[in-house]
Amino acid sequence: MSGSISRSWVLVKASANVLRLDKELMVFPLLSGVATVLVTVSFIAPFALTGGFHAFDREGARYLAYAVGFFFYLVQYAVIFFFNSALVGAALVRLAGGDPTLSDGLSIAAKRLPTILGYAAIAATVGMVLRFISERSGILGRLVVGAIGMAWSLATFLAVPVLVTEDIGPLDAVAESAALFKRTWGEQVVGNFGLGWATAIAFFSWTLVSVSFITLASHLTPPIVVTAVAAAVSGYIFLALVSSALKGVYTAALYRYASTGEAAFFDHAVMGGAFRPKR
């Protein structure tokens, strides 16, 4: 266990070293976050302003809700996958020895836009099917749906770097991602373990700092309280951007190692320890 934790932190630090060279990678999750908020507002606002939510209360309107939900999933996934592709694409350029720019990442994603849209449609379909089953299942059924959802997440973990680097369709990208998982992964990817714990510790630490500052500021003037709250929110946003960028870098490095055996910026032995071959 201690060995896994040690390797996980080494992988986190290696991902951070790459991010230090290309801090602009954090712009991609920022753009993704802004875009997803705009998409959400664009879906909610028309119903909220016109009272259209009542349409879903009518008998037989369930399928309309599913249709709207599917389209919402489709657009959201398309936005998220587009900027994830830009992030991973730029990270792969750095890992290959290049010096990527924001335009490089966006160009890479734009070239694969049809495949990204296809992959978004697949993900939206899977999401809606699982939601449909979950809503009609008991506790046991929901546990099964949760397990299926987890399996889907693991099988498609490398789908984005696959569709970014290989000239294949979305179904083939999912199949290739699953094949990489089946061939080289086992019970645990320690890099994700490290990223998860690093994020949790960072957020917990910042929460303690924020609560302390806001508590102190509450005894001062209102402008200082507002400033403290704004600083706290800004810190959470920054940590979220760093976490997303680190995950993109690690995903790119993991795919590169799985497909080529190359571990640029990462210790080869430690990278190999991130894989647990199935027995």
Task: Report on this structure.
α9 packs antiparallel against α10. The chain is globular, with a radius of gyration of 21 Å. It has 279 residues and is mainly α. Helices cover 80% and strands 0% of the residues. It has one domain. The model has no long low-confidence stretch (mean pLDDT 83).
- Could you give a short account of the major beta sheet? none
Based on Cα principal axes, name the global outline.
globular
Spans of 5+ residues with little confidence (pLDDT < 50)?
Answer: none
First-residue to last-residue Cα separation: 19 Å
Q: SS-based structural class? A: mainly alpha
Question: Any idea how many domains?
Answer: 1
- Total count of helical runs of at least 4 residues: 11
- Taking all Cα atoms into account, the compactness measure Rg is 21 Å
Content of β-strand: under 5%
Short key terms for the protein model shown above:
single chain; 279 residues; mainly alpha; 11 helices
In short:
The chain has helices spanning about 1-20, 25-50, 60-95, 100-110, 115-135, 140-155, 160-165, 170-185, 190-215, 220-260, 270. It is an all-alpha fold and about 280 residues long.
Write the layout of secondary structure elements.
Blueprint: H1 2-21, H2 27-50, H3 62-95, H4 102-111, H5 113-135, H6 139-155, H7 159-165, H8 170-184, H9 190-217, H10 222-260, H11 268-272
